[in-house]
Specification:
The complex is a heterodimer of chains A (197) and B (225). Chain A has 197 residues and is an all-alpha fold. Chain A has one domain. Chain A contains nine helices and no strands. The longest helix of chain A is centred in the last third of the chain and has 33 residues. Chain A is elongated. The N terminus of chain A is likely disordered. The two termini of chain B are 41 Å apart. The chains are: A mainly alpha (197), B mainly alpha (225).
Chain lengths: 197, 225
């Protein structure tokens, strides 16, 4: 975005991105509240997120066709939700950058790259439970676990393993493909017909 | 009493320091100190209502952890294990809530401009924040309209919520950008702000207090823990 080229974002794109970004954040926020009840729901929330955000993402791609909106949206999401953990803005930034790269490779049109970009975009939100993995030892031996049932602690230890993390990433990948295709289908069905895109 | 106004950048700084305290796993005492400091800040900013709500929330999760979880069988307690995580990160939650509850969008924009954040990022952020309440209203209207009609199936229901929202958003964004362009959002000159921000004595005091808590907590980790 530094050099003033044809593909630079203008104020109009920024406003459009902001409005659609609000839709993304609303979805993520609702899923986060729902996930707050139980880790099982929490871990599968990203799968549902990915499906729901598909249409928003595809509309954003079709409307802007420029690099910038996605890295901004995912960073803004991270910053607004940073109350949960400081890792969100960081993963948001990285995921957003990778997403921009994928979209650019696909010239904002090729389906495979669109889906790959969407996957990176969703991975940007994985920061919300990364601290659970990175600070696992400290968390499990820390003050919050004192007085807890040993069976409970060992069950939690078993849950917070890297294979489980792999399953989460896999679920995000599947969710991204489903969500992306769902988004493309809705685009064809409604927005193209309505002349919006 | 006049509310205590801090610079948004100070709020970011103390929020970062709180994160250090929490994720370096310092002794429990410092979690309490940080939360007490935030409670004080909420009071000084005349936001007692938000503070009480947050503390009630904290009370509930803490009570659930201390009284409910130990009595449940481990398999059931597992299902509710996010509670312990919520207790752990609560100081950060308070910091984030403090930042959002006491900062207006225009103050945030002023702070971002001062920090030389790219303009497109600043505008996006501001529009997002401003658009969230409007979006909630839209969703409510759509749900009302949907309940009048017979709409079945998950996919159809999703489509019925989604399409109007996205269409409406696209429309609103179009109108917003026209009005913003008419008011000179694209003008290259330096923009002024209605709210002036800057570092004052209170910013220095608050930053120093939080920095002290952070340093002492890490130092005492070796001594106490």
């Amino acid at each position: 975005m530094s050099a003033p080229t044809k593909s630079k974002m203008n104020a109009k794109d920024a406003i459009f991105t902001g409005a659609l970004g609000a839709v993304c954040i609303l979805i993520r926020f609702v899923m986060m509240i729902v996930g707050g009840f139980s880790p099982y729901v929490w871990f599968s929330a990203h799968f549902v997120d990915a499906i729901l955000i598909g249409p928003v993402f595809m509309l954003m791609v079709a409307k802007t066709q420029k690099s910038g909106p996605f890295v901004i949206t995912s960073t803004v999401t991270g910053i607004l939700m940073m109350a949960a953990t400081w890792m969100l803005p960081v993963t948001g930034l990285i995921g957003g950058l990778l997403c921009e790269l994928c979209l650019k490779m696909g010239e904002y049109r090729k389906k495979g790259w669109l889906l790959a970009g969407f996957f990176c975009f969703n991975m940007g939100f994985i920061g919300d439970f990364l601290p659970l993995w990175f600070t696992k030892e400290a968390y499990l031996s820390g003050p919050s676990m004192q007085g807890m049932d040993p069976g409970y602690v060992s069950a939690l230890t078993n849950l917070l393993t890297w294979p489980v993390f792999g399953v989460i990433v896999l679920s995000i990948a599947v969710g991204s493909v489903l969500g992306g295709l769902f988004g493309l289908k809705l685009m064809q069905k409604h927005f193209v017909k309505a002349g919006l895109v | 009493m006049k509310p205590l106004v801090l610079d948004p950048r100070t709020k970011f700084l103390i929020w970062l320091l709180t994160n250090v305290v929490v994720f370096c796993n310092t002794p429990r005492l410092f979690f309490t100190i940080t939360m007490a400091l935030y409670a004080l800040l909420f009071l000084l900013a005349c936001k007692a209502g938000s503070m009480v709500k947050l503390l009630i929330g904290y009370g509930i999760v803490l009570a659930a952890q201390c009284y409910l979880l130990p009595h449940l069988p481990p398999a059931v307690a597992m299902v509710f294990s996010t509670v312990t995580y919520a207790v752990l990160v609560f100081p950060c939650v308070m910091g984030g809530m403090y930042l959002l509850a006491t900062t207006s969008v225009s103050q945030l924009i002023a702070a971002f401009r001062r920090m030389h954040v790219p303009e497109s990022f600043t505008i996006t952020m501001a529009v997002t924040l401003r658009y969230l309440p409007a979006l909630r209203e839209d969703v409510r209207h759509i749900l009302d309209a949907m309940s009048l009609r017979q709409i079945k199936g998950l996919e159809q229901r999703l489509e019925c919520i989604y399409i109007p929202i996205l269409m409406g958003t696209a429309q609103t964004a179009e109108e917003l950008s026209e009005s913003a362009t008419a008011r000179g959002i694209d003008s290259p000159g330096k923009k002024s702000s209605w709210h002036t921000i800057g570092f004052h004595a209170q910013d220095v005091v608050v930053s120093v207090v939080f920095l002290a808590v952070c340093v002492v907590s890490i130092w005492s980790k070796g001594v106490l823990g």
